[in-house]
Amino acid sequence: MTAFRRTTCPHCRGKLETGQRIHQACIDPWLEAQQAKKERADAKAARMAAKVERASIKARKEAIKTIAQRIAAAQIAFNAFIRERDKDKGCFVCGRPFAPVPGQVQHAGHVRSRGAAGHLRFNEDNCHGECEGCNGPHGAKPHQIKAGAIARIGLEGFDALENDNTPHKWTHDELRGIQATYRAKLKELRQ
Ligand SMILES: [Zn+2]
Ligand SMILES: [Zn+2]
């Protein structure tokens, strides 16, 4: 067995005399370098800890989201899909094109409103690209909306919406699923 014997200086890598472990002149700069190395490692560990903490806060926020917040998040994803699907079709009520008409903002308008028929808020037949004017509070009249909807989904489709009056209680899992589904469908449309 040969005992380990240092032959090069840990600081300058130069040759050492027998029994010497570091050059005398290299001690201070070596200690400084060690200290700087430790500080970099500590700073990195602190950054990692902060990152873990942020992720944990995000997870907790996600976990305590209310059903209302989840519905809102799923609706954003669903409406974005509808706008993309219908972007070239024009307003389903008045027929005006969305682009390149300046200031013509495209909405995702519900045939039966989310307030009156919340169970149909994520029904693709119940939602179509609509201009801001028609979708506004003084916008389209019910008979105009009906005509526009029939033009898109047919009388049968319209009747199916009208006859669907089963209230629905959304669950967290369901809403998470809807959000994920429509994000994926939007991505697919854009490809
Ligand atoms: Zn040295
Ligand atoms: Zn319109």
Q: Would you kindly provide a written description of the structure presented here, covering whatever features stand out?
A:
The chain has 191 residues and is mostly helical. It is built from five helices and two strands; from the N terminus they run ααββααα. It has helices spanning 27-63, 67-85, 132-135, 142-163, 172-190; strands at residues 106-110, 127-131. The chain has a two-stranded antiparallel ribbon with strand order 1-2. Helix 2 packs parallel to helix 5 (172-190). The protein is elongated, with a radius of gyration of 32 Å. The N and C termini lie far apart (67 Å). The site of one zinc ion has 6 residues, from loops. One zinc ion (ZN) binds next to loops.
Low-confidence stretches: none
The outline comes out as elongated
Q: Report the order of strands and helices.
A: HHEEHHH
Per DSSP, the total helix count is: 5
> Which strand order does the major sheet show?
1-2
Distance between the termini: 67 Å
Task: Provide the β-strand percentage band.
Answer: 5-15%
Give the beta-strand count.
2
Task: Name every ligand kind in the structure.
Answer: zinc ion
Helix content: 40-55%
* Major β-sheet annotation: 2 strands, antiparallel
> What is the overall pLDDT average?
92
Structural class of the secondary elements? Answer: mainly alpha
Tell me the radius of gyration: 32 Å
